[in-house]
Design goal:
Blueprint lengths: L1 H7 L42 E4 L5 H11 L3 E6 L13 E2 L2 E2 H7 L3 E4 L5 H12 L3 E4 L5 H4 L4 H7 L4 E6 L14 H8 L19 H24 L3 E6 H4 L5 H8 L4 H4 L10 E5 L5 E5 L3 H10 L20 H8 L4 H8 L6 E3 L10 H6 L2 E5 L5 E5 L8
Parallel strand pairs: 1-2, 1-6, 2-5, 6-7, 7-8
Antiparallel strand pairs: 3-4, 9-10, 10-11, 12-13
Length: 393
């Protein structure tokens, strides 16, 4: 799973511990050097008093409920011994579960319940009795087969908000289709926008649809809870991962509906202009040049003593009017960080393309507290991505 790499690259400092999937090995002690640049942030209390019963597995639902827990909600994660969360065994193991599993679930109450039994089903119903919301991520009909479908629960708990995350939604010809992030991106049209110079679709290293679906689920759940606070009534929230990515299409879709070929006229696709593109530097690292407005491009030209590159209008910077190879060759004359010393703070819209390994050491992420610490139940320190916003009162 690519997000496991994104969030857990440094976790190779651990050996594999005993789990139900792996042989027992003694874990090495953790080197705290990894955490010296990571801040511990107190959770917000925006959703304090909200209780959520979480049946989800893998990434979209667990990330959504992780975000809700970071905002102060009480989340009770339900697993059945017959259908445990696959993420438990995905990647390097720490204290009996993967790093990713800890990162997504450390701020939840974990319960293992065989809800196929009468006693297990009753235990689940007792938990739902005091809950504000249920969130699940099985194919349509699965929860109903176990006795926990929305219509079944609605009769007993009319104020319950019920969020269902699926690949393609509830009521259409694709509802029962199997799928993963790549499939959802393909159906959404997103993959048509991610192609190399030969037109081959580029499979991204992270999950756009899954994570967009997480955010949509959080947004929709909070909106449904707000509606409930006014009406007293619960609701069913249908979140489709394939649909969640649709807002990413807004600009190219608008060009298309205007009768234009977005491949030719989209000025922010990195291939049609010289002022909005990635450039490799002498050390092999890359710069993001996003000087869309002409004033930013001309600022760059002044800083690099290239007065002849200055222009009066953005359209003069399209490849039909400007030799991009000159720019490519020029940026290879210095290392990335040398360029940044020149451009930083000079109103240029130039930034370093940071590698994953650089994030925790970079001043931006240090100042923004991008990562936060937590401990496993056994006291092993780990870190995860913090909430991407702050709230002041």
């Amino acid at each position: 799973m690519s997000l496991c790499v994104l969030l857990s690259s440094w976790s190779a400092k651990f050996c594999i511990n005993k789990t139900i999937y792996h042989k027992e090995r003694r874990a090495r002690s953790y080197t705290k050097k990894c955490l010296t640049l990571v801040s511990k942030i107190q959770p917000l209390k925006l959703l304090e008093g909200i209780k959520i019963i979480d049946f989800t597995r893998l990434l979209p639902g667990p990330l959504a409920t992780h975000l809700l827990a970071q905002m102060g909600a009480e989340v009770i994660k339900i697993e059945s011994p017959k259908r445990m969360d696959y993420v438990r065994m995905s990647g390097v193991q720490v204290d009996g579960a993967s790093v990713l599993f800890h990162q997504l679930n450390h701020n939840k109450t974990l319960k293992m319940v065989d809800y196929s039994t009468p006693s297990g089903k009753q235990e689940i119903l007792d938990l739902i009795q005091g809950a504000d919301a249920v969130i699940e991520q099985f194919r349509p009909g699965a929860m109903a087969a176990w006795g926990f479908g929305y219509e079944q629960l609605k009769a007993q708990f009319p104020g319950l908000v019920y969020v269902s995350i699926t690949g393609y939604g509830q009521n259409n010809d694709y509802a029962q289709e199997a799928g993963h992030d790549f499939n959802y991106m393909a159906y959404s049209g997103m993959m048509s926008l991610l192609k190399d110079e030969q037109g081959k679709p580029l499979v991204p290293d992270t999950q756009f649809a899954d994570i967009a679906g997480s955010y949509m689920a959080v947004m929709a759940l909070q909106a449904a809870l707000l509606q409930k606070s006014k009406s007293g009534k619960g609701s069913f929230v249908d979140v489709s991962l394939a649909d969640a990515i649709n807002p990413f299409l807004i600009l190219p879709y608008s060009l298309h509906k205007g009768g234009l070929d977005q491949r030719q006229v989209n000025l922010i696709n990195g291939t049609t202009t010289v002022n909005y593109a990635a450039y490799q530097c002498a050390d092999g690292k890359w710069l993001a040049v996003a000087a869309m407005e002409i004033k930013f491009w001309n600022n760059i030209c002044d800083l690099i003593d290239k007065a002849d590159w200055k222009r009066k209008h953005e359209l003069e910077l399209t490849l039909a009017n400007f030799n991009k190879q000159e720019v490519i060759d020029f940026f290879k004359s210095k290392d990335r960080d040398e360029w940044m010393q020149l451009f930083q703070g000079k109103d240029t819209c130039v930034s370093p393309i940071l590698e994953l390994e650089e994030l925790e050491q970079h001043p931006y992420h240090q100042q923004k507290n991008t990562f936060e610490n937590f401990e496993t139940p056994n006291g092993t320190p780990l870190n995860t991505v913090a909430l991407p916003f702050n709230v002041k009162t």
